[in-house]
Structures are given as structure tokens and as C-alpha cells.
Amino acid sequence: MDKASLEKKFALIHEHWRPKVVASVNGQELKLVKIAGTFPWHRHDSEDELFLVWRGRMTIEFRDRSVVLNPGEFCAVPRGAEHRTMAEAEAEILVFEPARTRNTGNIIDDDFTAPDGVVI
After folding, report:
1. Domains, the chain, ordered by start
2. pLDDT category, 18, cuts 50, 70, 90?
């Protein structure tokens, strides 16, 4: 495998809330996504997720609290935890989760549910 550049990979993404797979490791995928605005409330019944901010700032809201993440900070969301993500301005995020995890978890939303397995 050749090395990859996050800067160059993020430059290929021109839409929000549509994760792109950049690597697969032991049944897990590393996905890159640009976010802006507010994502719907959802949960993943069988998968944990880890969000790592590369650029910008994001918030992960849970029903009982909010976690604000700045560049270089991350938060693991345990399976079953209802949450939503948001960013006031565009943010670039790395997401680590099992392969084929639907970005909207237990819901399907015409505007936010992204196709699985899109590789860049």
C-alpha cells in the first residue's frame, strides 16, 4: 500500500454528510466526511463509532450532554447511544467504524443517508 494524504483526500470531497472510505483494516473502515449544519438524531445498535476532528470544530450531542471537539480531539460513541453531530461551519472529520455501517444508523433519511462503501 502507498501512503495517502488526508489533505488530498479531503480535497476530493465536495458534499456534506457523505462519508468516503479511504482505508479498511480488520473489518473496520476509516471514512472521511465533511459536515456542516445538524445531522438527525440516530443510534447504531451494533456498532461503536469514533469521530476525530481533522479541521474545524464539531459537536456530538447526546440526550444528556454535548461534547465539543476541536482539531486533534476525538470521541468514541458507544453502540446504542442516541446521538447527533453538528458543526456551525464546515468541519473535516475522520470516522472509524465497522465496514458497511450506515451513517444514519437506525433511521433512513432522504437527505442524510449516504451510500455505503464509496471509496476515494
Report:
1. 6-98 (2.60.120.10)
2. very high
Query: pLDDT above 90 covers what percent of the chain?
Result: 92
pTM above 0.85, yes or no: yes
- SS3 string, the chain, reads CCCCCHHHHHHCCCCECCCEEEEEECCEEEEEEEEEEECCCECCCCCCEEEEEEECCEEEEECCCEEEECCCCEEEECCCCCEEEEEEEEEEEEEEEECCCCCCCCCCCCCCCCCCCCEC
